[in-house]
Design brief:
Layout: H1 6-24, H2 30-36, H3 39-49, H4 57-93, H5 97-112, H6 124-144, H7 148-168, H8 181-193, H9 201-220, H10 240-258, H11 264-274, H12 276-290, H13 299-318, H14 321-328
Keywords: Acyltransferase, Membrane, Transferase, Transmembrane, Transmembrane helix
GO molecular function: acyltransferase activity, transferring groups other than amino-acyl groups
InterPro entries: Acyl_transf_3_dom, Nod_factor_acetyltransferase
């Protein structure tokens, strides 16, 4: 059993808070755009930061399958129950082949995953993309760990493939968003490469702040399209948008380091970090449900309540061994070091 790393939990807590806020606020707002510049790259980066060399592909595959794919299937099934129940009631009232066909199409979309899923299932693409990113990077690193330059060229080539996919295969929908792995690998690899970095952190903070200021100026005053949405393979301006994502990650890292883990704020974000994967699944169904009530129309209020409800459900799931296995991908109350 590995112990949790407090500051990593705080980092994930900040990350999942940005995910919730990014999905709650108006899609046309600046808050939405700026959060999307870095919030999903952040989770791939953290996962890479936690990567440790794995010698046995099968064992690594099984462990990650239990941790990521079993909860994916469990939440997919759980959230699908209301929809299938409606189809069932319609079929009881008026049996028809067209209804059976519609149900089959919906089922195939759920199996296909990725961009085919929306609303309650909006973030499910991330789980399958992360799983395949981890597996592919593990294989690449085991094979080329002594040839780091060649590994770097492969990752750079994958980034090129991601851009090609974005520009020339714009309307193609790959199963489980497998195509997004091409760009996710760059964030994952950088997270791993910098996990033992001992360079001057303040230099990177200043550089990140400058990049962020320039990006905001370019967005607001020059009208540059810096949108970054990994799910829909909108990667903005090549290299520049990627650099902006890294700047956002760097700034959140320094924010984490500035938050004392013994303070109330640090404890809160650490708890959210522990529940980050559960919140990733739960926040969309909760916030869409809250949206029906006028009292929750305010984005900040709805974000806060969504985080609270998601966290409470996580705590309930964590109390049962069976539910932990099905929905949290874990057999113990404490996650392993590389929980992502």
């Amino acid at each position: 059993m590995f112990k949790r790393i407090q500051w990593i939990d705080i980092w994930k807590g900040i990350g999942i808070a940005t995910v919730v806020v990014g999905h709650v606020v108006d899609p046309d707002s600046l808050t939405h755009d700026y959060i999307f510049w870095f919030h999903m790259p952040l989770f791939f980066f953290i996962s890479g930061h936690l990567y440790r060399q794995q010698y046995y592909f099968k064992n690594y595959f099984r462990r990650k399958f239990r941790h990521l794919i079993i909860p994916y299937i469990s939440f997919l099934f759980l959230f699908s129950i209301p929809e299938y129940f409606v189809y069932f009631l319609q079929f009881v009232r008026d049996p028809s082949l067209s209804l059976i066909w519609d149900t089959l199409i919906v089922t195939l979309r759920k199996i296909y995953g990725g961009r085919s899923l929306s609303l309650w299932f909006d973030v499910f693409w991330f789980i399958t993309c992360l799983f395949f990113t981890q597996q592919i990077y593990n294989l690449l690193y085991l094979k080329y760990k002594r040839r780091k330059q060649f590994l770097f060229l492969i990752i750079l080539g994958c980034y090129g493939l991601a851009l090609f996919d974005s520009y020339f295969l714009e309307n193609w929908r790959f199963p489980w968003n497998l195509n997004v792995v091409a760009i996710a690998l760059s964030f994952y690899a950088l997270g791993h490469f910098t996990s033992r970095l001992t360079a001057n952190k303040y230099f990177f903070l200043v550089a990140a702040a400058i990049v962020a200021i320039v990006a905001i100026f370019a967005d607001r005053s020059l009208g540059w399209n810096l949108d970054f949405d990994m799910k829909y393979k909108d990667y903005g301006i090549p290299l520049l948008s990627w650099t902006i994502a890294i700047a956002g990650i760097t700034m959140t890292y320094n924010l984490v380091k500035a938050i004392d883990s013994t303070t109330y704020l640090g404890v809160v974000f650490a708890e959210l970090g522990k529940a980050s994967m559960a919140i990733m699944y739960l926040h969309q169904p909760i916030q869409f449900t809250l949206l029906k009530y006028s009292i929750f129309q305010n984005p900040l209020w709805r974000s806060l309540v969504t985080l609270i409800f998601s966290y409470l459900i996580y705590r309930l799931l964590a109390r049962s061994l069976l539910l932990r296995k099905l929905f949290l991908g874990n057999h113990h109350k404490t996650y392993r070091l590389n929980a992502l």
